[in-house]
Amino acid sequence: MFGRIAGRYDLANRLLSCGMDLSWRRRLVGAASRAKPGAILDLATGSGDVALALGRAISGAHVTGMDFCLPMLAQAEKKKAAAGDKAYPNVRFEPGDGLSLPLPDKTFDVVTIAFGLRNMADRHRSLTEMHRVLRPGGRLLVLEFSQPKPPFRALYLFYLRHILPILAGWITADRQAYVYLNKTIEDFPGPQKLSEEIVRAGFKTASAQRMTLGVVALHEAVS
Ligand SMILES: C[S@@+](CC[C@H](N)C(=O)[O-])C[C@H]1O[C@@H](n2cnc3c(N)ncnc32)[C@H](O)[C@@H]1O
Predict the structure, then answer these.
(1) Going from the N-terminus, what domains does the chain have, and what CATH number goes with each?
(2) Tens digit of pLDDT for each residue in 79-120?
(3) Of 45, 73, 144, 172, which is best to mutate to test ligand 1, by the most ligand atoms within 8 angstroms of its C-beta?
(4) What's the pTM value of the predicted model, to 2 decimals?
């Protein structure tokens, strides 16, 4: 499904979130920078926005952007190439499945995943894999849609169910993809429940910060 919408994915993100996705990703990159990492995995990297932003913000870190969708990775490589050979010497993109990462144990200081955990077919297994590839004391940062509280929730759900699929259909010519994506947003756990799931996957601590009235949350966990 992501292969079908890869070419229009960035444009859809910008328009459907009214540009707010940029500031959500900036918060994620800021939190990753504070950990002063040497090696970062950006899982479900998609078109590479987070991996490239991490490469820019933390020039001393090696960033691996990984995704199993080759057309999305092609978009990421295109952006990297457009910036010139020398712009991102510390960022590389690799294919790989988040449910069975082709990476050795205890390799990364930070794992980031933006709007990707929701799409993993088995959330517990992907969290366990992220825990496996983190060094002890390493950090997991999950940026994901969350559950806004009433009364704003009703307005938000109206936008998700009735307006967003129409707009997304115009932008990507694939309305069905966004009907599915909206369902994954509605079904996704709120901050408390997701923090508990993260701890069940082996992390020592997990906490969450809500953003934009709870539309999105940034989870931080220590392995
Ligand atoms: C909504 S996009 C997010 C892309 C990017 N992180 C961003 O911030 O825009 C979700 C991504 O998760 C990827 N994905 C879903 N399941 C995956 C898996 N099992 N392994 C690797 N990537 C996966 C999809 O291919 C897609 O690129």
Answers:
(1) 2-147+189-222 (3.40.50.150)
(2) 999 999 889 999 999 999 999 999 999 999 999 999 999 999
(3) 45
(4) 0.94
Side by side, the strands of the sheet bearing 39-43 are 91-95, 62-67, 39-43, 108-114, 134-145, 216-222, 205-211
Q: What is the C-alpha to C-alpha distance for residues 73 and 69, in angstroms, rounded to an integer?
A: 6
Q: Locate tokens 């009364």: which residue?
A: 151
Query: What is the 45 CA–ligand 1 centroid distance (Å)?
Result: 6
- 5-60 pLDDT, tens digit per residue, is 888 889 888 888 888 999 999 999 999 999 889 999 999 999 999 999 999 999 89
- Assess whether the C-beta atom of 49 lies below 6 angstroms from ligand 1: yes
| Atom 27 (ligand 1) nearest CA | 46
